[in-house]
Amino acid sequence: MIKFGASDENYEQLHFWEHDDEYKNSFITWRRNMAIMYKFCTPASKDLFLDKVVWNKRFAKYVKRGWIYCKESDLDSIRSFLMAHSDVVVKRIDGACGVGVDKYKAADFLSDSEKLQSLVGADSILEEAAVNIEALRKFSPSSLNTLRVVTCIDSYGVPKIIAAAFRMGNGISHTDNIVTGGIACYVDLDSGKIVTDGLNVEGKFFEYHPYSHLKFKGFTIPCWKEARSLALELALEVPEARFVGWDIVLSEKGMDVLEGNIPPGEELTELDMNGKYHKVMAMY
């Protein structure tokens, strides 16, 4: 594990105990993922992607859902926002990996003056809850299910798609992050078809979703070509950030970009267990 920079989760997911050093050396592990980030992304670009408010403003044309920053909004503005949206999400600025993301009915705040007041000055983003298209929502209706598309800009300035995954909740949670109980499966980059079983944070694979009982392998992501094109377009918005994982929602309002992740999680990048470390490093 130490030799190749693997975390405990990497070790379990990639079945390192079953393989030799050549196999292990092919993967982007946790430590290597961090090293790639420092090689491929400037400090300023990393700061941009870490600041949810600045990022939302910078990528405003790709964000289809309404949002406001509570710390910069007064009570009337927050109340007006809540009255305009039936379901909302509160995201803590310091949250990550699905932690600090809570979904509410707007009425929960509007009917409780103390709860409503708690949003004023909060270091959180209040946003309209995006809604998946039916084809993706049916896998896990309780959560917002997203595509993670990992891009890397090569040494010639050309963006390439390195990996893609479909992430969904477990049928109970409202987030799709595998750290908070979600499930992910790998998407073929050409066809948009799911080519692996689902995987959870414990390294357990599922042929069928445990809640909806839908089979993962063989399902084709709708609008895949459009999602690919969007990811490549996004990659060039901040070319100083060369290695990014984009979270894209196929929503009822169209393609909605949730965020960009620096670095993208290695557990999703290597979900197909087909080592990509040397491919990415060759692009430096």
List keywords for this structure.
284 residues, alpha+beta, 5-stranded antiparallel sheet, 4-stranded antiparallel sheet, 12 helices, globular
What's the N-to-C terminus distance?
25 Å
Q: What summary fits the major beta sheet?
A: 5 strands, antiparallel
Structural class: alpha+beta
User: Biggest sheet: strands side by side, in what order?
Assistant: 7-6-5-10-11
In round numbers, the mean pLDDT is 93
Output the number of helix runs.
Answer: 12
Radius of gyration: 19 Å
Shape: globular
Low-confidence stretches: none
Helix content: 25-40%
SSE diagram, text form:
Blueprint: H1 8-13, H2 21-24, H3 30-40, H4 43-50, H5 52-58, E1 67-69, H6 75-84, E2 87-96, E3 99-105, H7 106-110, H8 113-117, E4 124-128, H9 134-137, E5 146-153, E6 159-168, E7 183-186, E8 198-199, E9 205-206, H10 224-235, E10 243-251, E11 254-261, H11 266-269, H12 277-281
Antiparallel strand pairs: 1-4, 2-3, 2-4, 5-6, 5-10, 6-7, 8-9, 10-11
